[in-house]
Each structure stands twice: as C-alpha cells, then as structure tokens.
C-alpha cells in the first residue's frame, strides 16, 4: 500500500489555484494509466491514473474533492473524477476510484 498527499482547492485563498494544507492518506493504491490493464469500463479522457481509497483500511476514508492536487508514487496530478463503489450486500461504500489528470 502507499500514501498520498491530497491538497483540496482553497475556499479562502486570494487567488485561483490556491490549495489548502495537504492531508496524508494512508493505505491507498495509485495505479498509473500505463500499468492499468484493459477493463470493461472506460476511463474519462485525459485520465493519467487512478487512486483507490478503501472505505475500511484507508485513512482518512473519504473521497477528495474534485480539483484537489494529489501526489503519490512520484506523480502529481489533479482529481478529475470520483467514482463511489458500494458493497452490493450492504449498500455501504466499499471504495472510491479517483480519476487523476
């Protein structure tokens, strides 16, 4: 597992492009698009990787806001999309798939 630094867009900054202090996410998985295998679902155009955040094991177990800056495994990218996947048995959140650009 990996750690990621996530900085949300600032809501109080004076300038566009300001970010809040980074929050460290532990027990996440960053998968660059070059290492992803073909799947039955399509990624959004421009996606460079996917950050997986587990609802049980990751900390914090919350999805980052779109537009947040993410640094993980030597890659810095921006959150483009957030996909929530629920456990089909319980309906609770199982994990988030964060599309990075």
Largest sheet: 6 strands, antiparallel, barrel
**Mean pLDDT across residues:** 89
Total number of beta strands: 6
The percentage helix is under 10%
State the secondary-structure class: mainly beta
Which segments are poorly predicted (pLDDT under 50) over 5 or more consecutive residues? none
CATH topology: Thrombin, subunit H
Measured by DSSP, the beta-strand proportion falls in: over 45%
Give the helices and strands as they follow along the chain: EEEEEE
Radius of gyration: 14 Å
Q: State the name of the first-level CATH class.
A: Mainly Beta
Amino-to-carboxy terminus distance? 21 Å
The order of strands across the largest sheet is 1-2-3-6-5-4
Query: Which term fits the overall shape?
Result: globular
Structurally, the number of domains stands at 1
Task: Give a short overview.
The chain has 101 residues and is mainly beta. It has no helices and six strands. It has one domain: Thrombin, subunit H (Beta Barrel), CATH 2.40.10.
């Amino acid at each position: 597992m990996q750690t990621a630094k996530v900085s949300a867009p600032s809501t109080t900054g004076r300038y566009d492009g300001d970010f809040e202090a980074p929050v460290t996410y532990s027990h996440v998985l960053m998968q660059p698009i070059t290492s992803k295998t073909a799947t039955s679902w399509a990624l959004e155009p421009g996606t460079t990787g996917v950050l997986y955040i587990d609802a049980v094991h990751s900390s914090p177990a919350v999805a980052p806001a779109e537009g947040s800056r993410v640094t993980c495994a030597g890659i810095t990218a921006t959150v483009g999309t957030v996909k929530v996947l629920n456990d089909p048995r319980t309906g609770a959140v199982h994990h988030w798939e964060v599309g990075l650009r």
